[in-house]
Amino acid sequence: MLEVQTASRIPLDDYAEVIGKGELEELRALAKPLRGRTVEMINSTAVGGGVAEILNRLIPLAEELDVKIRWEVMTGGEDFFEVTKSFHNALHGEPYHATPRDFEVFRAYNERNRARLALDSEFVVIHDPQPAALIEARKKNGNHWVWRCHIDLSHPNRGVWDFLETYVSKYDGAMFSSPEFARKLPIPQYLFYPAIDPLAEKNRELEPEFIADVLSRHAIDPLRPILTQISRFDRLKDPVGVIRAYRIAKRYFDCQLVLAGGSASDDPEGAVVLQEVLQEAHGDPDIKVLELPAWAPLEVNALQRASTIVIQKSLREGFGLTVSEALWKKKPVIASAVGGIPTQVIHKHTGLLAHSVEGTAYQIRFLLSHPEIAAKLGEHGHEHVKENFLITQKLKRYLTLFLALAKSA
Amino acid sequence: MNTSEMPFEFFTVAHLTRIGNQSAATLAEFLTGLEQCSDASIFHHTFQTLGSHHFLTEGFSNDFAQWALADANRDALAEQLTALDIRDYISIAALRADLCRVVREYCGAHPEFAHQTTLEPFYFCESVEVTVPFGRTATTLDEFRQGIEHLSHAAFYFHFISSRLRLQLRTNDFSHWLADGLGLKALADSVNRIDIYTNTLDSARGKLIQLIDLERRKHVGSTNGEPHSAR
After folding, report:
1. What value of ipTM does the predicted structure carry?
2. Model confidence, pTM
3. Å from A277 to nearest chain B CA?
């Protein structure tokens, strides 16, 4: 195990102007009974991926509240990560036949990591399946263990889930991003939303000049409506469907479409989808297909802020935090009713849901015809994110969980 | 200015959402769910959800109504569920009885919709409530006003709305203390009339502070200068 030193540190007080002083006082009041008590977060990677991104922000904030929290990363060889990658895909529902050797590799690495670590904090939070078997190190009548599952378990591969469930059912509780992702388990299951950081580069306020510069670099006209979908080039994000919806709307409105995603150069499937998108967009100068560098938070932020409407037309989705990012920027969002999206887009209150290309096109036309309704959806969306999907709310949820666990003991 | 012998203690509250094992994919299943789910589940989808969506002042009332509208596509049922005002209830049992009655009557009048599969299922969840002292108390109206100003949304909602269930009275913690602690019955009644369905929590808090300032003006007169402006 490696203890991770979090890189970025934003003082908790800086959040006061975003969430209000009362909310900060509340966090301090909730943390007071937990002062000096120990928490350990364990996952399988220190960099890259949403979990590491969230822990990097969450740990320093919890430390400021005098909770003794540390973050450790599980170690494993290539064979372990090959197996857990296959398990990950299988738990998402992909066909997979796990062999006894796969299970043996999984158990062996968990055992090695158990031997290295004390695992004696009062609250131990295990993230995702990779370190799930660390629970075997728990002593009788000992500390509190909870399992945070960041993946969609609604249609898991039976063999892999049955294996994993033997470990998960030994925890004091499990947390999922949506009720739909939960399983029937003998332990309490809680709803824990992912979160965005309002002060991170991807979400903080930007100078208008910077936004104008980004638009100019990509030859996007700031004077005509801009429809945007930010997502990797993946068929499950349906970028071709977005182009088709745009084409229908374009008959009525002189609008532009921006499809921006991470580079597809190291992702063979992404490269194929990118080609399909370019082919579909061919001949229309108002469609901008942007391959952004792997980490271009400011550019994504600028594109979202410049948008008239943000679209997330996924066919399948985990939670879809890009929706919260757009709502935080007060943008009207049109999104598919899949995964965690309906939690963020409350139809007709914080955005509009659609179920097809035609439905998406209709909602685009509706919002472009009614900018006052679009503005109201954006305002409400911002408040919804502030109340539910900010990093400070996530911290509050963890504090509440620890208090509830301590009380139940 | 009055001083109360019984201080008002400000608390804050946080909720965890516990995912239940019940879900409903038709109106008939929804009715069964409403009949069988725990009190904590009814609380979560009505009292708790109104608090966490306080910024929606037009047409949002509870999760049941929103699901009837967006997923079951039954506008008339959604309207009836939206119209249930949680301030009318001092017990979960009474609220549950009315929710069940509305859905039962709708299914009776429209049996063709009762077994139609909805776009998305309804997942019954529960609230797990944790309360801790906020670290502030008040014995005078001035201290009370300061405390109100510093409350989080959740703490304000806890004292102003969900207190009805705790008190088992058609009032709230603030009005209860203003009347019993400070003897300000008229102010207590005015505070209890603030409409939480057409106000956000911030605007409700602003109205409460305005009412307190009017009361302070009566007592302080011109000697102490102007009261603080309302938010």
Report:
1. 0.86
2. 0.88
3. 29
